[in-house]
Amino acid sequence: MRIFVAYNGKFGERIIGNLLNYRNFCISCDKLCIFCRDDKSLDFSKNIIGMYTQPPGLPGYIEEPKKYLPPVLLENDVLLAINLHPDIITELPAMAKDAGTRLIIAPIEEPNWLSPGLRNQLKEKCEKAGIVFAAPKPFCSLKKGDDPLIDNFIEQFRIGFPGFKIGVKNNNIVSVQILSSQPCGCAYYVAQKLKNTPVDSKLDEVISGAHHAYPCTAGMERDAELKDTILHKAGYIIREAVHDALSIENKDKLRENTSKT
User: Fold this and answer.
1) 3-state per-residue secondary structure call for the chain
2) Residues 117-153: tens digit of each pLDDT
3) CATH of the domain at 89
4) What CATH number has the domain bearing residue 216?
5) Do 72 and 198 belong to one domain?
6) What's the average model confidence in pLDDT over 185-200?
7) Structural domain tally of the chain?
8) Are 121 and 207 part of one and the same domain?
């Protein structure tokens, strides 16, 4: 799949960095780094066919948003629309149709990135254009099952809802394989922190500590739809992913040990 990225801000840069997998993308382990991302299969640079960076300092209302957009988008299969001005992102479905886009993903990491009304408007425009639309809140909540194109995106680029394969011996985590990572790349850091961790009542503390330390950059403002912060939602997601990766026996043991504390 060919990806075109239209973005604004640091989160977009982080997504691009994760897909490019350049040498110093992840520096969270600092001097303890074992270069766990040294894997050529994580380099999707050939799939990123173009990028648009939103100009800074745009007014609250843009009368002619096309002035701030490229004349056309390069042909692509997937358009990532990240933290764009409402008047800018509203123009994208029509441009995407001309570019042959089949899937638009507009992640929401902060409540003000995409209002429910604008999200519904974009969804309607995409439906009319024959484009699949997804607005995961946060991006790491993107799961398989809603559409084959989304499934293909997750499978090819191994990003979305995190997935692990975890080996346990004598109630300690001895190995962690990343099947899919959050789009920001957090799963790789969490995996390193999980190694040699007991499967007990303190496991969630280790997961949460690693998630925050990476760090997760999702918003801390309360979201009206989630009735919680998007940061907390992302934290629940990584814990769920680790729990799911553990065997039923180990998950039962975790619950048993937790109930004793």
Assistant:
1) CCEEEEECCHHHHHHHHHHHCCCCCCCCCHHHCCCCCCCHHHCCHHHEEEEEECCCCCCCCCCCHHHHCCCCCCCCCEEEEECCCHHHHCCHHHHHHHCCCCEEECCCCCHHHCCHHHHHHHHHHHHHHCCEEECCCCHHHCCCCCCHHHHHHHHHHCECCCEEEEEEECCEEEEEEEEEECCCCHHHHHHHHHCCCECCCCHHHHHHHHHHHCCCCCCCCEECCCCEEHHHHHHHHHHHHHHHHCCHHHHHHHHHHHHCC
2) 999 999 999 999 999 999 999 999 999 999 999 999 9
3) 3.40.50
4) 3.30.390
5) no
6) 96
7) 2
8) no
Q: Which residue range(s) make up the domain with 252?
A: 163-259
**Which two three-digit tokens encode residue 95?**
């441009």
Same domain, residue pair 42 and 8:
yes
